[in-house]
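Quick start: read one record
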Amino acid sequence: MIFCNLVSGSKGNCSYIASGETAILVDVGISCKSVIRQAEIVGIDLSRVNAIIITHEHTDHMLGVQTVSNKYGIP
């Protein structure tokens, strides 16, 4: 299992969790560009992501969810 906080704080939250063939993002509270940049820094392939889970509807948890979902075809 892999767990990585891409960003965590009052200005945005996004975590990546993967095990086997399953990979998810938990919250996407940063821009799509920032998600891509942070994923590249730690070597995460966002095309592997199967789902996005949003913990609650605050901007710092869902700012970039629609753009990331559309760009990568993630439900």
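The chain has three helices and four strands.
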